[in-house]
Amino acid sequence: MGTGVSNNKINMEAAEPVSDFLKTCPNLPKIQPDFALPKSNTIKMKIKIKECDVNKFTKILYNLDKINDKANYDLKELNESNTDLFINGKKYKYKSYFTPSYSGVYEIQLNIKILMKNCCCLFYGLNNLESIDLSSFNTQNVTNMEKMFYKCKRLQSLNLSSFKTQNVTRMSSMFCKCSGLKNLDLSSFKTKNVTDMNCMFCYCNSLQSINLSSFNTQNVKHMEYMFCDCQSLQNLDLSSFNTQNVKYMIGMFENCRSLQNLDLSKFDIKKVIKFERMFANCSKLQSIDLSSFYIEKITEDMKTMFENTNLKNVALNVEQYNFINELINNVKIIYV
């Protein structure tokens, strides 16, 4: 008796997602199918080549401005066998050399056949990167995002809402020197395992707003220069921050020249050992809430903590009068 099953292979590409099919069977026990279709893992970029760059041999992905640039990092996970490179729709070998034939915008696409663990320096130094689509880039296994967008100066917007960051431990300098970015929404980020956020947004001097509402920083040890030179930021909500394990806050807000108010009332600084220039050159900072701060002794590095500031109001724990009075003159103290 026949089984009614054809010997032909099933076309899984044409099939509807298994999870959708299972929704029509409410009485089935909950299961996690192990034969689900793989999701796409694609990076799409638009890069603008100037006329002066056309005659240069350039290395795609590493740096399209220069060859043998010091920023060229070896991304060991990606190679010709697991990555397809397309330039204006034409396939090239990954890491191949490419000569632009005209000045203008080039469309770059990377189809990655593995789940990367290391995104360190992935887009480092792509000075002429105009836009990037990461909506289909799978980051669920990534542990390192250090310097991922470092020096992407032309980027004005970045949608990272699809990023999975639950396994990431390093985010230092992730957006450093992205001087064209104006807004950044990281509300989808899960940062419970991150230990290093030093220089994460430093020199993002056009950044006007940033959403860090989901940040869990309970394991972070390094926050030095985290917002240094974010000169366009007027407000910064750090109410989600847990700083119980932070050791370094050197220059954390240095040169945030537009910042007017700062509420650090939830900051736990018991383990912090370095404070120098933490608020230096925050020239428009009028009021700050330091009511959770408890400092037993003024150290030498603290003497530059409020250098070149014009603070008018400081909220303090009543026991901390000597601390603030020694570091800032002519300030109104509000005891909490």
Question: Would you give an account of this structure?
Answer:
By secondary structure, the chain is mainly beta. It contains two helices and 13 strands. The chain folds into two domains: 37-116, no CATH class; 139-336, Leucine-rich repeat, LRR (right-handed beta-alpha superhelix). It is 4% helix and 17% strand. The strands form four sheets. A five-stranded antiparallel beta sheet has the order 4-3-6-1-7, with no helix packed on it. The model is unreliable at 1-38 and 62-72 (pLDDT under 50). It has helices at residues 18-22, 321-327; strands at residues 42-49, 58-59, 83-87, 90-92, 97-98, 104-112, 129-136, 183-185, 209-211, 261-263, 287-289, 313-316, 332-335.
Strand content: 15-25%
Overall 3D form: elongated
Highest-level CATH class of the largest domain: Alpha Beta
Mean pLDDT: 80
Between the first and last Cα atoms, what is the distance in angstroms? 85 Å
Q: Describe the main β-sheet briefly.
A: 5 strands, antiparallel
What is the radius of gyration? 25 Å
Helicity, in percent? under 10%
Q: Count of DSSP E strands?
A: 13
Low-confidence stretches: 1-38, 62-72
Query: What is the tally of helical segments?
Result: 2
Topology as a string of helices (H) and strands (E): HEEEEEEEEEEEEHE
Structurally, the number of domains stands at: 2
CATH topology of the largest domain: Leucine-rich repeat, LRR (right-handed beta-alpha superhelix)
Q: From the helix content, strand content and strand pairing, which structural class follows?
A: mainly beta
Strand order of the largest sheet: 4-3-6-1-7
CATH architecture classification of the largest domain: Alpha-Beta Horseshoe
